[in-house]
């Protein structure tokens, strides 16, 4: 996945001003800026026409009559509402000083325009345009450079809302807010257009209502943006927007579609947000992926429609704890953070009532160099610790060896390294921090175990036996590495892993049986040589070795045969070994016979277990019932 470097706040502001100057909101430029739909309420076709009309008298004024509102800067004529703080040549206007008394006059002028705004039907057409039905009666503040948010004039019952409950009707693409823009508790009655607007200080939309579509496409938030408890009753568009600081959408409600396509976040907080329709935190080609540079907090969020996080890039902590995904959740090609702690338990307590898609965007048949997304999904197994996947999960399906190596070298290794960033000793020289390191490591391994268990159950629900067994192995490995696991369980787990890859390998059990036959044969041969007469005779030693191997093989193919009564006429090496070789000048030994039978029985039990593991692997591999 191609990555983009997050621009600095200064770079974002510089780009925003560059777009603003490119649009040309000079007085002459306003003559080229068309008003949406059929024009203004009074037949105005351009923004210059709009600002020429006196809002009180309706008179269309000449440049001479507007001398009080027209200002020159760097040889260019500007309307005072669009006068920039600095021209492109660096010359400054009075707008560089936020306490200049001239602000009172211009804000009164703009507030009057906003108070005269009328409800207008309109919808978003494309990523940058809108469609207006009939005349556009909204306040035309495109490109306006303001100190604060405009307000309705007259007696107010709250910022931006008149006593009679009238709502703001506002069209402000490319508008610039130099100081805090307080739109809290405001109601936008028509399409609220802040396309490519720039908020240089805090943007406050707390408890704000958007009755029609809200257009924040390509907007720049250079400081904190607060949409806490905001209500979007129609579509909300934030695609390609840039949030340089906190983007707080706590408890916001999105009643229609919400688009955050190719949006760049620093800290994104959507805790308790409710998405009643589809939502896109996704990349749509050829755009950039959605980027969460630091925190991405969707704890307790509720996704009632389809949730699209396709190719989203999480560079910092990602949190979907106790979130609810009511339908399909698309996380294809997602890029996770580098630190294990940032994805650990990301979906703890979350419930996906629909299918969760965690597959890559690259083809399963793509060359290895293009499969990093597919393999990388195995890095974040512990993200699913504590989650409930009701309808299962679409998960990458790399080959067994690739999945195994990726798990051991990345997922397991990152969990094992958890806590290593803590200091080895405290300032007083004590080693108590070692305990903290171990506790952090165990938490990481426990999350890895839990995540593997969740995925195992998801594969079981999908009847994917091979990958169910794969995640079962990962679960046991993570459990084995925890310091709280008792040593007998660790030993048994280690043996189970080495001899059969936790019941998944067809080859290891057979190899283990052969190795057991050979090693037991050597033991029996040496044992027999020690208790027999003339053990160093060349001819006897050769005879002893091969017959010991034959005796060892019998314990695999005739298990527990050593407990059968011995025939007195049977003088084979095995029979003589169980008697203690009395034919070689030594009396029969009851202890020798019992010890040999016990050891041979242990070999038989082990052989039966290995053969059972082989059959189990056959059953799982070929899904035989």
Give an account of the 3D structure.
- This protein is α/β, with parallel strands linked by helices and 625 residues long.
- The chain is 33% helix and 15% strand.
- The chain has a nine-stranded parallel β-sheet with strand order 12-16-20-24-28-32-36-38-40. Strands 13-17-21-25-29-33-37-39-41 form a nine-stranded parallel β-sheet.
- The model is unreliable at 155-165, 363-375 and 534-539 (pLDDT under 50).
In short:
The chain is an alpha/beta fold and 625 residues long. The protein has 14 helices and 41 strands.
Short descriptors:
nine-stranded parallel sheet; alpha/beta; 625 residues; 14 helices
Mean pLDDT: 85
Residue share in β-strands: 5-15%
Major β-sheet profile: 9 strands, parallel
Terminal CA distance reads 42 Å
| Structural class category | alpha/beta
Unreliable runs, pLDDT <50, ≥5 residues? 155-165, 363-375, 534-539
Percentage of residues in helical conformation? 25-40%
The tally of helices reads 14
For the largest sheet, list the strands in their spatial order: 12-16-20-24-28-32-36-38-40
Rg calculated over all Cα atoms: 38 Å
Task: Give the topology, please.
Blueprint: H1 9-23, H2 27-30, H3 47-52, E1 70-73, E2 76-79, H4 102-115, E3 122-124, E4 130-132, E5 139-140, E6 145-146, E7 156-158, E8 161-162, E9 170-171, E10 176-177, E11 181-182, E12 187-188, E13 192-193, E14 198-199, E15 203-204, E16 209-210, E17 214-215, E18 220-221, E19 225-226, E20 231-232, E21 236-237, E22 242-243, E23 246-248, E24 253-254, E25 258-259, E26 264-265, E27 267-269, E28 274-275, E29 279-280, E30 291-292, E31 296-297, E32 302-303, E33 307-308, E34 313-314, E35 318-319, E36 324-325, E37 329-330, H5 340-343, E38 351-352, E39 356-357, H6 372-376, E40 388-389, E41 393-394, H7 400-416, H8 433-461, H9 465-480, H10 487-500, H11 507-531, H12 538-557, H13 573-579, H14 590-622
Helix pairs in contact: 7-8, 8-9, 9-10, 11-12, 11-14
């Amino acid at each position: 996945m191609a990555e983009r470097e997050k621009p600095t706040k200064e770079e974002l502001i510089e780009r925003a001003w560059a777009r603003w100057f490119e649009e040309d909101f000079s007085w002459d430029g306003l003559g080229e800026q068309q008003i949406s739909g059929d024009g203004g309420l009074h037949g105005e076709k351009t923004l210059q026409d709009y600002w020429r009309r006196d809002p009180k008298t309706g008179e269309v004024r000449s440049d001479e009559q507007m001398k009080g509102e027209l200002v020159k800067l760097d040889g260019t004529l500007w309307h005072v509402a669009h006068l920039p703080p600095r021209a492109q040549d660096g010359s400054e206007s009075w707008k560089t000083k936020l306490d200049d008394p001239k602000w009172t006059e211009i804000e009164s002028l703009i507030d009057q325009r906003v108070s005269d705004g009328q409800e207008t039907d309109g919808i978003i057409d494309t990523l940058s345009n809108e469609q207006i039905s009939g005349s556009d009666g909204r306040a035309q503040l495109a490109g306006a450079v303001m100190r604060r948010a405009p307000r309705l004039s007259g007696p107010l019952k709250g910022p931006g809302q008149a006593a009679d409950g009238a709502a703001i009707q506002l069209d402000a693409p490319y508008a610039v807010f130099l100081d805090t823009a307080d739109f809290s508790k405001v109601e936008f009655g028509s399409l609220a257009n802040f396309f490519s607007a720039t908020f240089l200080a805090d943007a406050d939309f707390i408890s704000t209502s958007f009755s029609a579509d809200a257009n924040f496409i390509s907007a720049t938030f250079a400081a904190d943006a607060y949409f806490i408890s905001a209500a979007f009753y129609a579509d909300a568009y934030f695609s390609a927007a840039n949030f340089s600081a906190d983007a707080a959408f706590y408890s916001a409600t999105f009643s229609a579609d919400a688009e955050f396509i190719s949006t760049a976040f620093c800290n994104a907080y959507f805790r308790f947000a409710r998405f009643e329709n589809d939502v896109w935190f996704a990349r749509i080609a050829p755009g950039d992926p959605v980027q969460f540079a630091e925190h991405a907090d969707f704890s307790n969020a509720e996704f009632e429609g389809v949730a699209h996080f396709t190719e989203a890039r999480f560079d910092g902590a990602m949190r979907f704890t106790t979130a609810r995904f009511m339908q399909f959740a698309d996380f294809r090609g997602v890029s996770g953070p580098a630190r294990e702690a940032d994805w650990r338990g990301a979906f703890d307590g979350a419930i996906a009532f629909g299918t969760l898609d965690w597959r890559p965007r690259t083809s399963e048949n793509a060359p290895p160099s293009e499969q990093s997304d597919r393999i990388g999904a195995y890095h974040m197994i512990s993200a699913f610790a504590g989650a409930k996947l009701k309808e299962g999960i679409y998960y990458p399906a790399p080959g067994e060896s690739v999945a195994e190596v990726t798990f051991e070298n990345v997922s397991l290794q990152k969990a094992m390294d958890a806590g290593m960033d803590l200091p080895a000793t405290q300032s007083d020289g004590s080693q108590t921090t070692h305990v903290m390191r171990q506790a952090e490591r165990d938490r990481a391994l426990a999350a890895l175990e839990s995540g593997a268990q969740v995925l195992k159950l998801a594969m079981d629900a999908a009847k994917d036996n091979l990958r169910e067994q794969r995640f079962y192995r990962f679960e046991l490995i993570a459990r084995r590495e925890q310091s709280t696991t008792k040593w007998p369980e660790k030993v048994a787990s280690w043996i189970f892993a080495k001899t059969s890859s936790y019941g998944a390998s067809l080859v290891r059990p057979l190899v283990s049986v052969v190795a057991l036959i050979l090693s037991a044969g050597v033991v029996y041969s040496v044992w027999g040589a020690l208790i027999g007469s003339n053990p160093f005779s060349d001819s006897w030693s050769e005879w002893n070795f091969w017959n010991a191997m034959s005796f060892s093989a019998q314990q695999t193919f005739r298990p527990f045969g050593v407990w059968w009564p011995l025939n007195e006429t049977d003088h084979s090496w095995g029979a003589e070994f169980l008697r203690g070789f009395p034919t070689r000048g030594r009396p029969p030994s009851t202890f020798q016979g019992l010890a040999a039978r016990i050891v041979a029985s242990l070999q038989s039990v082990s052989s039966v277990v290995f053969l059972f593991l082989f059959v189990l692997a056959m059953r799982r591999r070929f899904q035989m019932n």
